[in-house]
Amino acid sequence: MKALVYEGPGKQAWTSVPDPGIADPRDVIIQVTTAAICGTDLHILAGDVPEVDPGRVLGHEAVGIVVETGSDIDDLVPGDRVLVSCISGCGRCAYCRKARYGQCRRGGWLLGHMIDGVQAEFARVPFADLSVHRLPSHLSDELAVLLADVLPTAYEVGVLNGNVRPADTVVVVGCGPIGLAVILTARLLSPARIIAIDQAEPRLEAAKRAGAEITIKPDEDPLEVVRAVTDGLGADVVIEAVGAPETFELCTRLVRPCGRLSVIGVHGKPAPLHLEDLWSRDVTITTGLVDTYSTPTLLQLVDEGRLDVGGLITHRFTFAGIGDAYRSFADPVSSGALKVMLTRGGGAAPGGELDR
């Protein structure tokens, strides 16, 4: 089969790899019908996730058709259309028993990280009895893929960890797909206002459509704007959705005393933590890897039309165009890309490789 293979920092190729097979009784094999590119994939390619070995198939967001099941899987059969969660939980360890599947001692974030992922024609999915969700027939692949990672990450790591409450002022720094999903899911908790910060005008426009009341570029003095609408106090909740030292430091200045700062961004470099300024302000800082315990709830909201997420999808490519897909996603200022979808429909990209 063909798959996108990581070959070391800055290097990747759409190339031939062996077909996956059942390795554990709780596995399933799926034929991937739709996959998505995540910002974490870009962090891997930049060398920010050193535990990913060269030769790894990338990708952790997919919808597909079950083609084979392990002997312990009795609730899925070949032909089922399913959502593959980005997190694989064994369901038996101490963390899984607390629904902290992201910290599973046998699983966690495996796909495209510790085992081969789903930007491929076929994929092996471990612990499928807990990490695979059968989909309603009328829900499109594209909308379903957003539930693999983007929506539960935004909701759990951003909104819930940030303890968003009714009448809060919420600031979202970074309006990529995750940041926009934070805006959409934060509205479920009825904040008084949501303020979005990003350097790309198309993403700020998307933030307005998602529900942000105020949009700011970094060079427009975000601290002054936020203080102006909060009686000089700062935001109740600030959510960092970029993964850069400078955006984390900005967030620490935007949050008010007794406020909450939730970090979603994947950080590949150390970020400054000015405890000399923060220690007396009673600020709560949270980080986290998604657990995906909210996926069934979010799936119901999307399925019933109560969470409109279609606006997150901007670009569509077949696997044959995966090189162009990655280039568009990596340059959102020029391309206007938010969530980029990949579907079946071709063989290798021209020349079999992406640009190096």
Automatic annotation (TrEMBL):
Entry keyword Oxidoreductase: yes
Gene Ontology terms, MF aspect: oxidoreductase activity; zinc ion binding
A Pfam family annotated for this UniProt entry: ADH_N
Enoyl reductase (ER) domain location, by residue? 8-342
Q: Keywords in UniProt for this one?
A: Metal-binding, Oxidoreductase, Zinc
Known cofactor(s):
Zn(2+)
User: Where are the coiled-coil regions?
Assistant: none
Q: Which SMART domains match?
A: PKS_ER (SM00829)
| Keyword Zinc applies | yes
The record's family statement is:
Belongs to the zinc-containing alcohol dehydrogenase family.
- Report the protein name in the record: Alcohol dehydrogenase GroES domain protein
Organism from which the protein derives: Thermobispora bispora (strain ATCC 19993 / DSM 43833 / CBS 139.67 / JCM 10125 / KCTC 9307 / NBRC 14880 / R51)
